[in-house]
Amino acid sequence: MSEILATQDGGVLTLSFNRPEKMNALTRAMYADLSQGLNEAAGDFGIRAVVLTAEGDHFTAGNDIMDFMNNPPTSDDSEVAKFLSSLLNFPKPLLAAVKGNAVGVGTTMLLHCDVVIAGTTANFSMPFASLGLVPEAGSSFLFPQLVGYQRAARIFMTGESFDADSAIEMGLAAAKDVDPLAHVMKIAQHIAEQPPQAIINTKALLKAKNHDAVAAIMKAEFEIFAMALQSDEAMEAFMKFMSKKGK
């Protein structure tokens, strides 16, 4: 069974994280499947919108720490870098339905989505600094732009989490629903019925101001993240995290 499920309903493609027994922690293989799914959808005229969601009770626990420790993604052509690039450059509407925990990249990827619907259980966090790392996916640029510098600094530097209501108030999510997937699919289907080129051009215009800046920031973040990943500080933080998890 694939750890990324792809299903199409009319013009809407759904990509679902399918590793519920591990809270959908993302491995390099999952990143590869996600970027392939997005890149293929970008070139498929029949797909008008893509929805990101997850099986089980949680969106994603973020990166699979053991997978990261065994195979650190330190090069520009790693699966993680390719996924982040496919997110940044995806030309069609990208939507997400989030329930339970959305940790690390589980929150930062949402900054690239056009519409996010949060479940009532949704809980967002970006504990990069707590793991000896730095923000990624352009979040060091996009998040303060969204919520203001002070709030972004506090959230990044403390690793604190926030709920669906806070995500809506910040502008990270559009709405809250007990069934976020049903809600987001309704919006996606509505978008899929619009004139497709007009939708693509509208997204391009909405993203134009930030696109090149985000690309440059993502490159810098990735270089620092890769160095941090190989540091003693990160290794110590990872070990501490794993021992807490084991208790």
From TrEMBL:
- Which CDD domains does the UniProt entry name for this protein? crotonase-like (cd06558)
What is a single molecular function from GO for this protein?
A: delta(3)-delta(2)-enoyl-CoA isomerase activity
InterPro entries attached here? ClpP/crotonase-like_dom_sf, ECH/Chromodomain_protein, Enoyl-CoA_hydra/iso
Q: Where in the cell is it found?
A: Peroxisome
Question: What Gene Ontology cellular component terms go with this record?
Answer: peroxisome
Determine if Isomerase is one of this entry's keywords.
yes
**Keywords of this protein's UniProt record, alphabetized?**
Isomerase, Peroxisome
Q: Which Pfam families match?
A: ECH_1 (PF00378)
> Chief localization class?
other
N-terminal signal peptide: none
Q: What is this protein called?
A: Unannotated protein
